[in-house]
């Protein structure tokens, strides 16, 4: 039964497959023509998290003459730059300035609430700003606020 279904789908999509093959052949001939230059692919990298994660300690040391210790990247920052795998391929979390996860994360039109410390989804949360500041997370944010004050 399953082989018959596969054969039916291949037969019904035969024209689509031919069109794709023709397009592929046209692209290959265009790329192999003499004198054609290929443009480098432009990658979309959000600059705000990338700038915050750049290690500029050497530049800072050279300009100030003092040694500075570089702080290690947080789990969120490592996932955001692609140095640590994430459960959903292609998803990159958004981190705040302290390296914590933003309470609301979104990917491909879907948004959910997460624990800012570990990035774990908060089930059944509807207001991410409220759910992020409840319970033990309230203590965490109060500690961060008192350190910055």
UniProtKB/TrEMBL annotation:
Residues 73-134 form the Thyroglobulin type-1 domain. The keyword Disulfide bond applies. It holds the Pfam family MHC2-interact. Disulfide bonds join 76-95. Keywords: Disulfide bond. The keyword Disulfide bond applies. This is Thyroglobulin type-1 domain-containing protein.
């Amino acid at each position: 039964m399953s082989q018959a279904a596969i054969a039916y789908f291949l037969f019904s999509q035969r024209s689509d497959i031919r069109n794709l093959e023709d397009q592929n052949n046209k692209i290959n001939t265009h790329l192999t023509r003499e004198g054609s230059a290929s443009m480098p692919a432009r990658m979309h990298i959000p600059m705000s998290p990338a700038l915050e994660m750049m290690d500029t300690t050497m530049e800072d040391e050279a300009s100030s003459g003092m040694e500075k210790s570089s702080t290690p990247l947080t789990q969120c920052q490592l996932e955001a730059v692609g140095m640590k795998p994430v459960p959903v391929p292609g998803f990159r979390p958004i981190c705040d300035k302290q390296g914590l996860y933003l309470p609301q994360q979104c990917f491909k039109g879907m948004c959910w609430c997460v624990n800012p410390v570990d990035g774990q989804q908060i089930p059944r949360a509807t207001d991410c700003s409220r759910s992020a500041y409840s319970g033990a997370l309230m203590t965490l944010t109060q500690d961060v606020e008192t350190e910055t004050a």
